[in-house]
Amino acid sequence: MKLHTSVTDGLLSITSYEVDRIAVNGRPLTKSFLLTPRRLIEDWPPDSFDSLTESDLLAVARLDCPIVLLGTGARQRFPAPALLRPLIERRFGVEVMDSHAACRTFNILMAEGRDVAAAMIIESAG
Question: Most buried by CB count within 10 Å: which residue of 74, 76, 87, 90?
């Protein structure tokens, strides 16, 4: 699905999404990534929800954004509270949703000027 947003100059937004890819500023990504309005980190390790670790979420916490969207792939799945510890200890708000809902929500919050991070799991085909 292609997304149309009120693009804010110089910021990163999600421009489209499919089952196996998400485009950031028109660039298709096929592996899990972290995104803030000003930063894209393409080498985020989890290749499925089941492979998500506390260390992966520590990397999200280091982005220091008080709002975190966790896109869990094709369907919404909730991680164990222990995995969320790095975010909860910093008192960050965490919203867990399927990755497509996280795409839409990220763009809305980014356009509002909010300090938001998206941790997007793109499940590998293998």
Answer: 87
